[in-house]
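Q: I have 223 residues here and want to know how they pack in 3D. Can you give me a structure?
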Amino acid sequence: MKGGAAQQLVRIVIGSAQLQGNLSLPENSTGVVLFAHGSGSSRHSPRNQYVAQALQEGGLGTLLIDLLTAAEEREDARNGRLRFDIELLAGRVTGASGWLATNPATAYLPVGYFGASTGAAAALLAAAEHPDNVRAVVSRGGRPDLAIPVLDRVKAPTLLIVGGADLPVIEMNQEALKYLGAEKRLEIVPGATHLFEEPGALEEVARLAREWLQRHVKPYTRR
């Protein structure tokens, strides 16, 4: 895969937390995708970086942000509690969306969410509570079942991507799919496990995500 857009380190203050992120904006970006990490991951996740690069090559900007502060990450590494605090993570996603709406370089761009693991539930909760913030959601190996109580309020077209060998997560996504009321789709990548480490699996995730987000995260056309 070719190199993506240059990265800019940004710091986003949300309440008492200062979060770090990597913002990349290709020339003539048609939108920007906010990545919500989960389950102990971060903006340095090689899988999410790979998908982000594919999106950049497709003309979409990306913001990969750590939803936890450094101190919170240390706490979570000890007890794993914060990665399942979906309301906390969703609040951070909403705050980062607000930053994108006021940052001069991104204020004019429509926004999509890409969530992984518990970050997918946070993205969907944020999308349900603030539907005007987001045009589309993609979940990779996510836990949308953790957001079932609000899924009927999600207005953004939602794509759920799961590995074919990730059987428990397939069941969780199939159950969540029933509750989504907007445009929705479940894609199962044959033979892939939870981290999509098999040959060609992550490439398929990137292709599916890019097609979905390119279709939905774009400026409205005037009639």
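Q: Anything worth noting?
A: The first helix runs from residue 46 to 57. The chain has one domain: 7-216.
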